[in-house]
């Protein structure tokens, strides 16, 4: 039995050592000492199991044969039962605590990694879906670490202990156990695969159903206007019924395999019981007239028989925990394997050099020297060579996918795998203090970035509180006061992710006010007008033109929203950067 | 739509009683077979041992118990299988009922508050809360029923051994089935509740933070915020620990009760012989029966252990239910009275506004008669779109609306809305085929009608160029369409309705001259509505012939 297990274990790594399995293994190793302690409790558990069976068997046989109760043995038996309960209690607490440590540590790691990824995280998934990975998917590992992982040890330990204690008593029982255990294991693997398939398919269909619901729900206003909500309800009902039918088809099969497994276990218990009964009656066909076991031994075997199969059956039940964990691990690995710029380490390792002080005092000029970004076999950004002088305002245009946003992300310091040179005030970008550099930047993306909180809090995010006059001046300059004043709560109006009823143009104006307040002298704008209608866009651009005088500006915008007042117009293509003529109407 | 009541666990149980009785019965059969299997084999072996010892082994009837043992083991497996299959079938039925319930609540919500729930929140309720609720019968109710029936079976057996055993059994059953799970449930319920709320809170903070990630990092503030996210996580962890402690302790207590039950049973069943200082069974009690009895108690112990967890799950289901019930919406009373084909619309001191910000247009007087075309113009932010939405009954409004010479409440009025087609600024395209999207306008449209209307909005050539033509599946929210295509497809859908009133919000945004010309032509000929109200900053032939209203 032991050897058999050993060979199986040895074969397994070469066959299915998927990255997910490696990942889960590494995570489990973080808590190796706790798992060892849990194994200790496991050993205590199995020893008390045998002890309990032995003591109760003696009590039972005394009772059956002599109608007497041996008090000391009864106490031993009940005491063993108590030890068993306590061992279980300890094991459970240690395993859940190990699982918690693993999961909460992993979660911290994920959040900090996502932070370092910066905008690159959106290449993996949008934020809402990432939050599902960070919370639900990490919690999906719980069953694996708190139940499956320790159970794998129990499933080898308990049958071995039981086999050892049985071998000296009854060869036949020993062989029944020996023969059925591999069968159960083979079945379990089969069942596991079936259940995994069923699980995965069910998960996909369920996701599809949710998607359908969300789609219809998002368009509900449209459905109501069209007066078609009843039809949509029927659609939902039909697909839910179809889902029920197909899933049941799969589950009937999956459960059937589990049932076969259970039947195996029950039948072999029944077989042993029958053998023992007939043996005690001395009427076994090959052994009439003498009994192979005493009543005490028979009782002992009977008590141990269900315990022999129990861990195997539990592992079978928990097998889906492994599947679930591996599916989750795939998603989590995708995040962790995305190469990230280690911001914090850079910040810590580099002392604030003299050049940083210089950098802070100076107005930034930026130079790209044959700068390109090659990633996964294709250019994200073709090699470019150009200069941005301090105080220059540059319009960057180009088709989607040529690397306009990538260039901005480089400047924001979220990517470091670029080729060529990126120089700030003639200092290589890697050598400057990132925090100091970033403090000089203002960032105005397509959808303005807001945290939950009042308008005031969002405007003053991360800067020293300015005087009320400065604040008002910035609001007037960005033309925000016109719409903030009528608001009942004024600057203390709460902003949420939904925008609190402010229009896209108004949100962009608030971003401009924030940029003004931050005193940043390098403004990076990523299609600030693409979500706005033409009229609003024009108005926002006019404001930008006015307020950004004297700032260094790099504004990405489509040809549909031309930045006619820019000093330079760069057209970015797959071939590189081309400076266009501008009719600067300054 | 009828008024759908709130959800409760009782309603869930009674939702499909027959579908639920089958898993209960099969599961009970399996449970009892499991308990009997252990008890009977114990009795069988000890009786066999005793028979041999007494020298009557040869006449002992071993065939019947042997057959029963085998039969029970088969019954147990088959019952367990039947229970799993039928219970899951029932569970999927519940899932369907609950999803439709959520849908009904969404439909009952009025237009202005439809997007009160963010997408993430709704999805959370739809997936997680539903999951918590539908597993209630499977995780909470069934195990409880099984434990109860197992205890009943053991008590009957105990009654035949000696009735006095019923006392400890009753006390133990009370403790294990009610008291311990209830106490643990109470102990954990606060943590369950807080944990769920924290979960929602944590997610929304995560999304909010990450959507402002770049600004937070360049302002050097990320660490503070990330730390607060970490604190939420830490609080969640403490809740998790509390729940786990409740479950583990409950199990330990349950074990303790079993041990005490066995000990007290032995105490009641035996007496001390003062001379030999030995304990012997009291008169009239068969040792073999006691063996069976104790073994079945051990089997019952395995059944009651999961109950502790189930009471915690009960708390989770209840929180899920409460959260789902927050979606509950009483169906609005629809204004009575049918509205005939709209001939005239008069608005007095009419103002549309958004509920959240109160922003909208300045109140105006407006009227439109049969054959009229109106062009609403105004600077950005003057509230043109809000005004149009208010006319469409999609947005809150103040003032007076007189339709066909009768005062009428427009907001969410289905009778009124059936008479008009409104194209909002960003219309919704469903993740279905092009044809299915168009059928929403008119389910009985023929293929010719579909092509004609596509031609009217200049989409026919594009659709023809697609490999799957009308059956082309559109991606989520029409993302594989350009803004202009999306709008024209929505317009085509509206035109199929042939409603007398057509309200268009910026229909020409992002379209070239020729396309605008073609659409204008359609709107003036084949698809000419009785009344057309247009909001646009782009000039067009329709605009040239329209009565202009400046806001």
From TrEMBL, chain A:
Keywords: ATP-binding, Membrane, Nucleotide-binding, Transmembrane, Transmembrane helix. It is a multi-pass membrane protein. Gene3D superfamilies: ABC transporter type 1, transmembrane domain (1.20.1560.10), P-loop containing nucleotide triphosphate hydrolases (3.40.50.300). SMART domains: AAA (SM00382). Residues 366-586 form the ABC transporter domain. It comes from the Bacteria. GO terms for cellular component: plasma membrane. It is found in: Cell membrane. This is Thiol reductant ABC exporter subunit CydD. It comes from Marinomonas arctica.
Automatic annotation (TrEMBL), chain B:
GO terms for cellular component: plasma membrane. The chain crosses the membrane at residues 12-37, 43-63, 138-160, 166-185, 252-269, 281-300. Residues 340-551 form the ABC transporter domain. Its main location: membrane. It comes from the Bacteria. The keyword DNA damage does not apply. It comes from Marinomonas arctica. This is ATP-binding cassette domain-containing protein. InterPro entries: AAA+_ATPase, ABC1_TM_dom, ABC1_TM_sf, ABC_transporter-like_ATP-bd, ABC_transporter-like_CS, P-loop_NTPase, Type_1_exporter. Pfam families: ABC_tran (PF00005). Residues 24-268 form the ABC transmembrane type-1 domain.
């Amino acid at each position: 039995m032991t050897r058999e297990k050993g060979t199986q274990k040895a074969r397994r790594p070469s066959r299915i050592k998927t990255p997910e399995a490696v990942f889960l293994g590494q995570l489990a190793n973080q808590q190796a000492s706790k798992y060892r302690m849990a194994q200790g409790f496991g050993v205590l558990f199995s020893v008390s199991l045998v002890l309990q069976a032995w003591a109760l068997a003696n009590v039972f046989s005394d009772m059956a044969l002599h109608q007497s109760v041996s008090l000391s043995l009864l106490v031993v038996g009940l005491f063993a039962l108590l030890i068993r309960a306590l061992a279980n209690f300890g094991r459970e607490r240690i395993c859940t605590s190990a699982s918690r440590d693993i999961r909460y540590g992993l979660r911290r790691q994920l959040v900090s990694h996502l932070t370092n990824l910066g905008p690159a995280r959106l290449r993996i998934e949008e934020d809402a879906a990432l939050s599902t990975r960070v919370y639900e998917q990490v919690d999906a590992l719980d069953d694996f670490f708190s139940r499956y992982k320790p159970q794998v040890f129990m499933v080898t330990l308990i049958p071995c202990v039981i086999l050892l204690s049985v071998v000296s008593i009854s060869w036949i029982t020993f062989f029944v156990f020996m023969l059925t255990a591999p069968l159960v294991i083979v079945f379990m693997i089969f069942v596991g695969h079936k259940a995994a398939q069923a699980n995965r398919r069910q998960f996909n269909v369920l996701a599809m159903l949710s998607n359908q619901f969300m789609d219809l729900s998002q368009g509900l206003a449209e459905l109501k206007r069209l007066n078609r909500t009843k039809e949509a309800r029927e659609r939902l009902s039909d697909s839910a019924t179809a889902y029920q039918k197909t899933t049941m088809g799969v589950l009937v099969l999956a459960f059937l395999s589990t049932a076969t497994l259970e039947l195996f276990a029950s039948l072999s218990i029944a077989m042993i019981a029958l053998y023992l009964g007939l043996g005690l009656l001395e009427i076994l066909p090959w052994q009439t007239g003498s009994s192979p076991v005493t009543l005490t031994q028979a009782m002992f075997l009977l008590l141990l028989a269900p315990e022999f199969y129990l861990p195997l059956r539990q592992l079978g039940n928990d097998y889906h925990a492994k599947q679930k964990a591996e599916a989750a691990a795939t998603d989590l690995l995708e995040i962790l394997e995305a190469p990230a710029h280690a911001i914090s380490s850079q910040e810590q390792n580099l002392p604030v050099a003299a050049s940083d002080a210089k950098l802070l005092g100076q107005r930034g000029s930026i130079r790209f020297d044959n700068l390109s970004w090659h990633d996964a076999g294709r250019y994200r950004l073709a090699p470019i060579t150009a200069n941005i002088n301090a105080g220059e305002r540059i319009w960057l245009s180009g088709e989607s996918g040529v690397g306009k946003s990538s260039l901005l992300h480089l400047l924001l310091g979220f990517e470091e795998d670029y080729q060529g040179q990126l120089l700030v005030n003639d200092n290589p970008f890697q050598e400057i203090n990132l925090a100091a550099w970033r403090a000089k930047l203002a960032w105005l993306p397509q959808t303005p970035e807001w945290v939950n909180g009042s308008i005031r809090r969002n405007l003053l995010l991360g800067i020293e509180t300015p005087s009320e006059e400065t604040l008002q001046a910035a609001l007037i300059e960005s033309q925000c006061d016109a719409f903030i004043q009528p608001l009942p709560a004024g600057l203390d109006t709460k902003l949420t992710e939904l925008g609190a009823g402010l229009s896209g143009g108004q949100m962009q104006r608030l971003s401009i006010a924030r940029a003004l307040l931050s005193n940043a002298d390098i403004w990076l704008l990523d299609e600030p007008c693409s979500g706005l209608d033409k009229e609003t866009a024009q108005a926002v651009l006019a404001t930008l033109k006015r307020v950004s005088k004297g700032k260094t500006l790099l504004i990405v915008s489509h040809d549909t929203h031309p930045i006619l007042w820019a000093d330079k117009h760069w057209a970015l293509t797959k071939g590189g950067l081309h400076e266009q003529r501008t009719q600067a109407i300054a | 739509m009828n008024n759908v009541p709130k959800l409760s666990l009782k309603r869930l149980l009674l939702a499909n009683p027959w579908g639920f009785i089958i898993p209960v019965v099969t599961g009970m059969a399996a449970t009892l077979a499991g308990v009997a299997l252990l008890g009977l084999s114990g009795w069988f072996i000890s009786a066999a041992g005793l028979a041999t010892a007494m020298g009557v082994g040869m006449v002992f009837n071993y065939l019947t118990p042997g057959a029963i043992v085998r039969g029970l083991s088969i019954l147990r497996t088959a019952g367990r299988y039947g229970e799993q299959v039928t219970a899951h079938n029932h569970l999927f039925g519940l899932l369907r009922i609950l999803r439709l319930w959520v849908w009904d609540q969404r439909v009952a919500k009025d237009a202005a508050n439809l997007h009160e729930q963010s997408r993430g929140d709704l999805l959370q309720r739809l997936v997680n809360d539903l999951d918590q609720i539908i597993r209630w019968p499977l995780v909470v109710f069934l195990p409880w029923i099984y434990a109860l029936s197992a205890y009943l079976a053991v008590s009957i057996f105990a009654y035949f051994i000696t009735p006095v055993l019923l006392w400890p059994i009753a006390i133990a059953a009370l403790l294990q089935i009610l008291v311990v799970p209830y106490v643990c449930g109470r102990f954990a319920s606060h943590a369950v509740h807080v944990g769920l709320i924290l979960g929602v809170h944590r997610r929304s903070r995560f999304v909010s933070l990450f959507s402002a990630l770049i600004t937070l990092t360049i302002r050097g503030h990320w660490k503070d915020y990330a730390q607060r996210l970490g604190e939420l996580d830490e609080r969640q962890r403490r809740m998790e620990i509390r729940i786990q402690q409740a479950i583990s302790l409950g199990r330990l207590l349950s074990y303790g009760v079993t041990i005490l039950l066995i000990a007290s049973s032995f105490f009641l069943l035996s007496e001390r012989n003062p001379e030999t200082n030995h304990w012997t069974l009291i008169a009239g009690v068969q040792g073999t029966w006691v063996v069976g009895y104790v073994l079945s108690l051990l089997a019952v112990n395995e059944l009651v252990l999961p109950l502790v967890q189930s009471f915690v799950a009960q708390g989770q289901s209840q929180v899920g239910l409460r959260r789902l019930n927050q979606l509950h919406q009483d169906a609005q009373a629809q204004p009575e009275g049918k509205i005939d084909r709209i001939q005239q619309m008069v608005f007095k001191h009419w103002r549309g506004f958004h509920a959240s910000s109160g922003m909208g247009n300045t109140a105006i007087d407006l009227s439109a008669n049969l054959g009229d075309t109106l062009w609403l113009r105004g600077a950005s932010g003057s509230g043109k779109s809000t005004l149009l939405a208010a006319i469409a009954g999609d947005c809150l409004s103040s003032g007076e609306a007189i339709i066909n010479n009768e005062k009428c409440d427009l907001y969410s009025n289905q009778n009124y809305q059936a008479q008009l087609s409104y194209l909002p600024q960003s219309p919704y395209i469903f993740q279905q085929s092009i044809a299915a999207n168009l059928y929403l306008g008119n389910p009985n449209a023929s293929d010719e009608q579909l092509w004609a209307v596509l031609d009217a909005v200049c989409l026919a050539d594009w659709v023809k160029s697609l490999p799957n033509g009308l059956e082309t599946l559109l991606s989520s929210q029409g993302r594989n369409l350009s803004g202009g295509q999306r709008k024209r497809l929505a317009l085509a859908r509206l035109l199929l309705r042939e409603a007398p009133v057509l309200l268009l919000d910026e229909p020409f945004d992002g379209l070239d001259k020729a396309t605008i010309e073609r659409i204008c032509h359609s709107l003036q000929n084949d698809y000419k509505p009785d009344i057309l109200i247009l909001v646009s900053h782009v000039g067009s032939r329709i605009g040239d012939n329209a009565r202009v209203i400046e806001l």
